[in-house]
Amino acid sequence: FKQKTAYEIMPSLVGSEMCIRDRNKNQEKVYKVVRELRAHGVRSSLFLDPDLAQIRLASEIGVDRVELYTGPYAESWGKKQFNKIFDAHKNSASLAQSLNVGVNAGHDLNLTNIKKYVSIPNILEVSIGHALTVESLYKGLDNTIRKYKSLISPL
Fold first, then answer.
1. Which segment, 21-30, 116-125, 128-137, is predicted with the most confidence on average?
2. Burial class (CB in 10 A: 0-12, 13-18, 19+), 5
3. pLDDT in tens, 20-78
4. Global pTM?
5. Strand 123-127 and strand 65-69: pairing?
6. Which of 134, 68, 77 has its CA nearest to residue 101?
7. Of the candidates 53, 47, 45, 91, which has an alpha carbon nearest to the alpha carbon of residue 70?
8. Which residues contact 80 (CB under 8 A, 6 or more apart)?
């Protein structure tokens, strides 16, 4: 498959600024880019909060996948609000999948919190680059990769 990052196409659609959060400002821009990508056989994915309205909008726009922003999930690990945040991720993933939108996840996932996250059915990919790099400094690269592979083996 071919993959392009949004900022390579349109600098205003970069990263964790959640490019469709402002529905009136960016929806048409994102729709045009997604349509153009699809015409060239390129898969599209939007990095979003686990918010049902954003998931519905991503489906309307026609993206192939969403990547759920897991920063708050990681920050809430072991805290009172964890279950509420985890449930928001489960519900968002379920809605996306019911709308035929694939689900990826990423940001601050690590060896401690990733296993619980991938218990959400049908997560297709997780982004773990930063944590993997840091954890490798302490545990060694081969050992860290083996641990991640064992934890995410359902994927």
1. 116-125
2. exposed
3. 455 556 778 888 888 888 888 888 888 899 999 999 999 998 999 999 999 999 999 99
4. 0.81
5. unpaired
6. 68
7. 47
8. none
- The pairs formed by 45-50 with CB atoms below 8 angstroms and a separation of 24 or more are 45/102, 45/104, 46/19, 46/20, 47/15, 47/16, 47/18, 47/19, 47/106, 48/18, 48/20, 49/18, 49/21, 50/85, 50/88, 50/89, 50/91, 50/92, 50/93
Query: What are 73's two structure tokens?
Result: 């999930």
User: For every residue of the chain, which 3-state class applies, written as one string?
Assistant: CECCCHHHHCHHHCHHHCCCCCHHHHHHHHHHHHHHHHHCCECCEEEECCCHHHHHHHHHHCCCEEEEECHHHHHCCCCCCHHHHHHHHHHHHHHHHHCCCEEEEECCCCCCCHHHHCCCCCEEEEECHHHHHHHHHHHCHHHHHHHHHHHCCCC
